[in-house]
């Protein structure tokens, strides 16, 4: 997971959000825009509040994928109740769960593969330029228990229980999070169905 410190993102001021990104052609930028809830720069206090006021646009570094990860250029990302909980700090402040200065919200979405780690390249399932739906559930890929129930293998919801959510231009995701979107969905629908669908499936059949 990329670390987002205040020193890093406060110093960057030259991000051009209007520049188009074409995977494999456009250079991946060093910095990007994101939507996040932040700590107060002077006191370190959690700046929670009404979502329309508390979530801020910030500049953060673009991370490089590790061997089993992909960097995904986000096209659309859903808004869930866990985003509201993260921004408002209710029922708990997620800053108590990590030591980052910002918490980027967003759990899931749809995007274009911008780069791949070595293991994903070797696997051959994904290529740069693929459109993928991102499932936000993250598990320990090397835990032997993952084949029984991935939700017991250090499972967490990206963007809620970790501060590296999909409300940023470039998202790091593990290979198993990336799925081919249904062909009959609009871009907005493809970027918003997967977390609610997974929740409903687990409630009904597990």
If you had to describe this structure to a student in words, what would you say it looks like?
The chain is of the alpha+beta class and 206 residues long. The protein is 19% helix and 23% strand. The chain has six helices and ten strands; from the N terminus they run αβαββαββαβββββαα. It has helices spanning 6-11, 51-54, 81-88, 118-123, 187-190, 194-205; strands spanning 31-38, 56-61, 69-76, 102-104, 109-116, 131-134, 137-138, 156-157, 170-174, 178-179. Strands 9-3-5-6-10 form a five-stranded antiparallel β-sheet. A three-stranded antiparallel β-sheet has the order 2-1-4. It is globular, with a radius of gyration of 17 Å. Residues 1-12 have low confidence and may be disordered.
List the main descriptive attributes of the protein structure presented here.
206 residues; 6 helices; three-stranded antiparallel β-sheet; alpha+beta; disordered N terminus; five-stranded antiparallel β-sheet
Secondary-structure topology with pairs:
Layout lengths: L5 H6 L19 E8 L12 H4 L1 E6 L7 E8 L4 H8 L13 E3 L4 E8 L1 H6 L7 E4 L2 E2 L17 E2 L12 E5 L3 E2 L7 H4 L3 H12 L1
Antiparallel strand pairs: 1-2, 1-4, 3-5, 3-9, 5-6, 6-10, 7-8
Overall structural class, as computed from helix and strand content, comes to: alpha+beta
Number of helices: 6
User: Strand share of the residues?
Assistant: 15-25%
Shape: globular
What would the average pLDDT be, to the nearest integer? Answer: 86
């Amino acid at each position: 997971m990329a670390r987002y410190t205040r020193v890093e993102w406060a110093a960057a001021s030259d991000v051009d959000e209007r520049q188009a990104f074409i995977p494999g052609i456009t250079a991946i930028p060093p910095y990007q825009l994101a939507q996040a809830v932040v700590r107060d720069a002077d006191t370190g206090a959690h700046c929670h509040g009404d979502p329309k006021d508390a979530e801020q646009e910030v500049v953060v570094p673009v991370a490089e994928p590790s061997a089993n990860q992909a960097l995904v250029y986000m096209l659309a990302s859903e808004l869930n109740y866990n985003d509201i909980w993260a921004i408002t700090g209710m029922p708990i402040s997620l800053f108590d769960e990590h030591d980052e200065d910002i918490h980027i919200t967003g759990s899931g979405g749809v995007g274009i593969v911008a780069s791949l780690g070595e293991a994903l390249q070797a696997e051959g399932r994904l290529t740069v330029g693929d459109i993928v739906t991102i499932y936000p559930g993250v598990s320990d890929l090397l835990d032997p228990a993952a084949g029984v129930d991935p939700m017991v293998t250090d499972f967490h919801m990206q963007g809620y229980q970790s501060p590296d959510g999909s409300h940023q231009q470039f998202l790091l995701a593990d290979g198993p999070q990336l799925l081919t979107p249904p062909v009959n969905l609009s871009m907005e629908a493809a970027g918003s169905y997967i977390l609610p669908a997974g929740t409903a499936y687990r409630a009904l059949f597990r």
